[in-house]
Amino acid sequence: MLPCLPQPTILPPGHVSHFRRSIFTVPVELAQHILSFCHPWDVATFSQTSRAAYALVYHPTDQYLWRQLFAAYPFDSPHSIADIACKREKVDWKGELTSRMKVERVLFDGPMTSSDKQHVLRTLVTVIEDSSWAASQYRSDCNIKWLKRLVQHSSLLHNIYSVPETQDDAQDYARLRAYLALSVIDDRHNMPAHMKLLDRRDYSRAYVYNLLNYTAENNWGPIRQDGSVDWIHAEHLVNVVALNIRELPGNWAKTRPPTCMEGPRTSSFSSIRDFDDWAGVEGTR
Q: Cβ distance 211 to 221 under 8 Å?
């Protein structure tokens, strides 16, 4: 037999506000643990209900809540991100998560201002670079799944392929496009998209095969004078390789170069090789 439930206590009007505030009388650690099971957007909504809620979320004494929210979203393991940032200062989990949530809001809801555009570009480049490291070291692909969702369901591709560029963000745009490696619609029945792809192929070929773009000043490659990567040149190289492969006969037409959108791959060879077998081909005959 189930035990009888106690009768609810009816408080006088003067005690109602005190009763509502009692949620904040529990230990802070317990309140943060409860919030860690919520979606980040729900936590943000909760923080707007009162000053106490705002302080609990945005001014905690440690980063436990934000670290748990980051891992539960999910993004790649906090341990892998911490290792990536081991040479930097202490990881700002709140900054990492809110930065990515802002990218989602801008790409899915819009509109995108100039400052938003810069934020989206820089954040996505950072996530892609961290994802490659996490995938190779931890076989983790949470960030990659998040990127795929943005590419497939948001306005990301429209913005990086169609929005006019300025001189300041041209390198950032090209860098992101090079990482995505032409993640565009390649449908011959969709003539506008197909024609854009052909135009991009012709433009990239003209750039790559122009010998004037290879000088001693850029080390005969996609290098800028300050030693950094010339991502505009690198993007054209990616375009030419990817699109040239598609024009080859047979099964080559279905071949795609690896991109940042792929998950970690297992490898059958050992990471330790003799110097004489640096390419890992011994015993393959």
A: no
Phi then psi dihedrals of residue 257, to 5 deg:
-65, 155
For 184, half-sphere exposure in the C-beta direction (CA atoms, 13 angstrom radius) is 26
Q: How confident is the model at residue 241 (pLDDT cuts 50, 70, 90)?
A: confident
Q: Is 195 exposed, middle or buried (0-12, 13-18, 19+ CB in 10 A)?
A: exposed
For residue 163, the 8-state DSSP code is S
Provide Rg for the chain, Cα atoms: 25
Taking alpha carbons only, the member of 161, 245, 155, 169 closest to residue 199 is 161
> 10 Å Cβ neighbour count for 79?
12
Give CA separation, 280 vs 7, 34, 65, in Å: 74, 50, 45
pLDDT in tens, 95-130: 989 999 999 998 888 777 878 888 888 898 888 877
Label residues 201-237 b or e (16+ Cβ within 10 Å = b): beebeebbeeeebeeeeeeeebeeeeeeebbbbbbbe
> CB-based burial of residue 199 (10 Å sphere; 0-12 exposed, 13-18 middle, 19+ buried)?
exposed
Separation between Cα atoms, residue 270 and residue 46, nearest integer Å: 50
List the helix and strand counts (H, then E) for the chain.
13, 0
Please tell me the distance from the alpha carbon of residue 201 to that of residue 234, in angstroms, as a whole number.
14
pTM of the model: 0.70
